[in-house]
Amino acid sequence: MLLNTLLCGLLTLPLTVGANTAARQDVQAFIERIADTHKFERGELQRVFEQVEIRPEIIDAMNRPYEAKPWHQYRPLFVTQARMDEGAEFLRQHHSVLQRAESKYGVPAEIITAILGVETRYGRYRGKYRVADALATLGFDYPRRSTFFLKELEAFLLLSREERFDPLAVTGSYAGAMGKPQFISSSYRHYAVDFDGDGIRDLLDNSADAIGSVANYLARHGWQRNQPVAVPVLPGAGAPTENGRLKKPDTAIQQWRQRGYTPEHSVSEQWEADLIVLQSKTGPEYWLGLRNFYAITRYNHSELYAMAVYQLSQGIKRQLQAQANIDQ
């Protein structure tokens, strides 16, 4: 039926060490539910899960994410001269597509480029785990977030059917993100766009679709055209020195100024922001993250991630400007 084309070649493959996955009671219950809800053939799903592997090292990776590091250790992983140079080259190579995405969605070319740089080094490093293995491992054997990852596994099966993927051939991160922009399955289904008009939403190998999809994702999550991302601030005596849980900005910069925080750059006093405190080697750094900063955190719910994207984007922009000056 609907997955036959994708799976016809899989029946002759030898079973992996994860062959017992399909025999698990919880996996069988999942297969039954997905088959009933979405009209998959049970036999097709059974054959997929007979070859899915539960990978304990994926759980180990989930328990030590990069985002648990302090800023002074996290930043050097992503905001590097090499990544700036590569980002500037990527932007030059895809300038027309990036400009079209910026015009349509309002997201600057350097921000789109920086996200691709942080996620996959501009498409080169997309993860080594099969997405089916990652999602099954976390869905069935990671109780803390099993509900989320079982939903993503369901979305991945639907995505594979819709986009005609081989569900056992797609690789990605240990969390099941895939392609040049590292979209999780539900995000791929809801926010991926066919940006080159070839009739296919291909985030695995198509840079134009990846560029358009990143811009669409940020726009759909509140990106504000022609507004800044973040501004460094100086705390005055008596100013609060700790930020709370990451939240949508709801306090005007004028109010932050009244609380003792002075922006180092000129920004509208009416724009809303949230306080960001980052731990550098020499002490805390204070920033106000605006609506666009928050939009980036919808891609990855981490202040460190959003700041790395922002600072990398600024480095890419400086590289382009420096090159332009040399060429003049």
UniProtKB/TrEMBL annotation:
Signal peptide per UniProt: 1-19
Membrane-spanning ranges: none
Any GO MF annotation of the entry: peptidoglycan lytic transglycosylase activity
UniProt keywords, alphabetically: Signal
InterPro entries named among the record's database cross-references: Lysozyme-like_dom_sf, Lytic_transglycosylase_MltB, MltB-like, SLT_2
SUPFAM superfamilies: Lysozyme-like
Active site (UniProt): 119
A Pfam family the protein falls into: SLT_2
Domain of life, per lineage: Bacteria
Annotated Transglycosylase SLT domain residues: 24-314
Keyword Signal (UniProt): yes
CDD domains: Slt35-like (cd13399)
GO biological process: peptidoglycan catabolic process
Name the UniProt record assigns to this protein: Transglycosylase SLT domain-containing protein
Organism of this sequence: Candidatus Tenderia electrophaga
